[in-house]
Design a protein that fits this description.
seven-stranded antiparallel sheet; Alpha-D-Glucose-1,6-Bisphosphate, Chain A, domain 4; alpha+beta; single chain
Length: 145
Amino acid sequence: MATLKKAISINAPVEQVYGYMAEPTHLPEIWPSMEEVKNVKKTPDGAVESYDWKYKMAGMHFEGSTEVKEYVPNQRTVVKNEKGIPSTFVWTYQPEGDATKLTVEVEYTIPVPLLGKLAETFIVKQNEHEAETMLANLKARLESQ
């Protein structure tokens, strides 16, 4: 299992950052390898329960489903993927004055039988870069509003 942890400070209030990230259909706008998010299911109070996605890793396309395991508005969201690329994402939102520190921690399984053991190190580095790009894109999008 691979892990990564990245954080960024965004010059926008926690409510704005959380609100943007709480809508999974925004992910393809900021996440370069996230091709599509669909079939978003919500609770009666509007919280996301699950969604399906298409993702490209190392030139291969994967499809999966995400289930929201925990959400504390404006503080923390935990989502788990069982299909496609098994993973758990923990998103933590912390106020920093008028800004927000957003931290993402990910544990994921690289589909080694499909990609080969030699590709694993490359994929881990690529995913680190992907996370940094996603956070930078989110920062640019929210700070330009």
